[in-house]
Amino acid sequence: MNDRTEDASDLARRISDFLNHGGDAATLVENLMSDHRTLQQKLVREVVWPLLKAHAEAHARGWYDLRNEGTVTLAARLVDAAGEHVYLPFV
Question: What pTM did the predictor assign?
Fold first, then answer.
């Protein structure tokens, strides 16, 4: 595993721990929104949108239960509504 893969795994675990232990998600969002606008767009393009598409795929395959049904259902609706009209260039 390379350093970038380890960093990504560590970040995913830290976000999960943060949420699991009652972290202040509103402050997290506020901090992300105050980041450089190019990085905000990169976050949506490279993390948020792929995560939504993965959840939509889980919905389509029935890979969910009551614990994440709301998430996969919402993701499926958002991905369907956006269709092919997602344009998030690097600016």
Answer: 0.91
